[in-house]
């Protein structure tokens, strides 16, 4: 008996098994992580950096910095009242 056909069959089977391993279950795609600072609001203020829109200043400000600069109480109510009023 010629060993060549048996070798060819074995090689074909091994190649088939090796290639079938490539068609296994797909690796799950992980959603991209949002970058820090990519959370801008409608006014362009970056909330994760502490910025909020102040209509009175027409700018993104950090409430605690505004409170210190304007000698306001450092409270959400004081920020809202100051920023809601016009100059």
TrEMBL record:
Residues 1-20 form the signal peptide. Keywords: Signal. This is Lipoprotein. It comes from Fluviicoccus keumensis.
């Amino acid at each position: 008996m010629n060993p060549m056909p048996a070798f060819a069959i074995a090689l074909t089977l091994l190649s088939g098994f090796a290639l079938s391993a490539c068609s296994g279950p797909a690796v799950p795609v992980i959603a991209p992580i949002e970058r820090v600072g990519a959370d801008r609001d409608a006014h362009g203020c970056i909330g994760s950096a502490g910025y909020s829109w102040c209509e009175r200043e027409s700018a993104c400000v950090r409430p605690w910095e505004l409170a210190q600069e304007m000698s306001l109480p450092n409270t959400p109510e004081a920020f809202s009242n100051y920023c809601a009023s016009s100059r």
